[in-house]
Design brief:
Shape: elongated
Oligomer: single chain
Strand content: 15-25%
Strand order of the largest sheet: 1-2-3-4-5-6-7-8-9-11-16
Largest sheet: 11 strands, mixed
Number of helices: 5
Length: about 325
């Protein structure tokens, strides 16, 4: 076992005690700030961490933990906690008592559901949850309003919630090696995002709003179907009579304040056609239009945007205008 005392210097040298020297560990327990119990094969030792009340950093990685030791709730000063490569299938509610946590590593466990207790860690800046069995993310993930790095690679995600776009402090978002088929347009709201890793998914297109990420420096897209050209199906579902009437009301800016509440809510959902020369709107019936956009002057990726009619899709004005933000990208990995 490795015990890092508060007297360790910045060069990385630190005191090392083995299990036979537990008495020495007890002597410094009151001052210890860093403790490493990784791959020690002794779960009983992990259950005693509560006596190290001044811990700032604790590493319990690569053990066979199936649950968190209850004594850990007494380590209220913890800022960094690594539980990587254990057998954790859930986390206890008392985890919320560790409000000083800045970094939490849960990668390589057996978490099939996102642990809701994590959402209450308001000061969390770095969250690693790669290589678990996560199939979905809660929409409440936006509660992690201080998060800067979110690592979710190697899970079973087929989609991510649109609320992800409200996590405005994110600088790195890792969603590689999942089963994602689409991204929400709200991802364009992540104005501080620098790195977006999407390789090894099932993406065929990207939302056209992604070109608005002007701060993006790294975009990884390799091993996605989108790197292969495909025939685009421009078929459009026939608009209903309700939609046709609603389009007339919206395009002519008619007042609808006296209509029933259900119709007013429907009219409020109008989306404008992205064709710059079209003043049309759509509600439920839309045309999916794909344009291959140049990134870094070398790579072409398909962006998905929506038009109000087949006429707009066939016309020469359906293309998106060039985006200056594309020139800021430093690295685009497609293969």
């Amino acid at each position: 076992m490795e015990w890092s005392s508060s007297g360790s210097d910045d060069s990385g040298s630190e005191g090392v005690l083995d299990a036979s020297q537990m008495g020495d560990a007890e002597a410094v327990a009151g001052a210890l700030e860093r403790l490493v119990l990784a791959a020690n094969g002794d779960n009983e030792s992990a259950k005693t961490v509560g006596r190290f009340r001044r811990l700032h950093s604790l590493n319990l990685s690569c053990n066979t933990l199936t649950e968190l030791p209850g004594a850990l709730r007494h380590c209220a000063r913890l800022e960094k906690l690594s539980l990587r490569s254990n057998r954790l299938a859930e986390l206890p509610k008392w985890l919320t008592s560790l409000q000083n946590l800045r970094q939490l590593n849960l990668s390589g466990n057996s978490l099939a559901q996102f642990p809701m207790a994590v959402l209450e860690l308001k000061n969390l800046k770095y969250l690693y949850m790669g290589s678990n069995g996560l199939e979905s993310l809660p929409s409440a993930i936006e509660k992690l309003e201080s998060l800067q790095i979110l690592y979710l690679g190697g899970n079973r995600l087929t989609e991510v919630p649109s609320s992800l776009g409200n996590m405005l402090t994110l600088t790195a978002l890792v969603l590689c090696d999942n089963q994602l088929r689409a991204l929400p347009p709200s991802i364009a709201q992540l104005e501080n995002l620098r790195s977006l890793l999407l390789h090894k998914n099932q993406l065929r297109t990207l939302p056209q709003e992604i070109v608005g990420l002007r701060g993006l420096r790294e975009l990884s897209l390799r091993d996605n179907p989108l790197v292969v050209r495909f025939v685009r199906d421009m078929a459009q579902q026939v608009p209903s009579l309700l939609e046709l009437a609603a389009r007339v009301v919206s395009t002519h800016h008619l007042s609808y304040s006296t209509l029933p509440v259900t119709l007013k809510k429907y009219l409020d959902t109008a989306h404008h056609c992205v064709n710059p020369l079209c003043q049309g709107v759509f509600f439920d019936s839309r045309v999916e239009h794909v344009k291959f956009v140049d990134f870094c002057g070398k790579y072409r990726v398909p962006l998905l945007h929506y038009l109000c009619s087949q006429r707009c899709a066939d016309g020469p004005d359906a293309d998106l205008p060039p985006e200056a933000g594309q020139r800021l990208l430093r690295k685009v990995l497609l293969g």
